[in-house]
Amino acid sequence: MCTPKENIEHKDNVLGKHNRGANSGLAKLTNKDIYSILNLVNNYNITQVEVAQMFNVCKSTICRIKSGKRWGHLELRGLEYGNP
After folding, report:
1. How far apart are CA 34 and CA 76, in angstroms?
2. What's the whole-model pTM score?
3. Using an 8 Å Cβ cutoff, are 4 and 14 in contact?
4. Per-residue pLDDT tens over the stretch 41-74
């Protein structure tokens, strides 16, 4: 048995940190895709449904990306959308 603290240290040091975004084995999108998606929905007259179809994801995925609920770990402030 180990303490909760030892368990957390083991997770971080041995098993590694949680993979987010493109590093996740389940990710359909890359970081570059996210910048492109934000560029399309923010700067062009393209609906979220159309963007979702372009990237083969659900409209709700696009909505969550735009709101920052998904892929919010990316530093997006101060960057020109579409240029990672």
Report:
1. 10
2. 0.62
3. no
4. 888 889 999 999 999 999 999 988 887 777 666 6
Distance between CA 33 and CA 58 in Å, rounded?
Answer: 14
Q: How far is C-alpha 43 from the geometric centre of its chain's CA atoms?
A: 19
Helix or strand run (H / E) with residue 10: helix 4-10
**Spatial distance between the Cα atoms of 71 and 55, rounded to a whole number of angstroms:** 15
**Which residues, at least 6 apart from 10, have a Cβ–Cβ distance to it below 8 Å?**
2
Q: How far apart are CA 7 and CA 24, in angstroms?
A: 22
User: What is 15-71 written as a DSSP string?
Assistant: I-PPP-GGGSTT----HHHHHHHHHHHHHSS--HHHHHHHHTS-HHHHHHHHHTSSS
- Match 């990672």 to its residue by tokens: 84
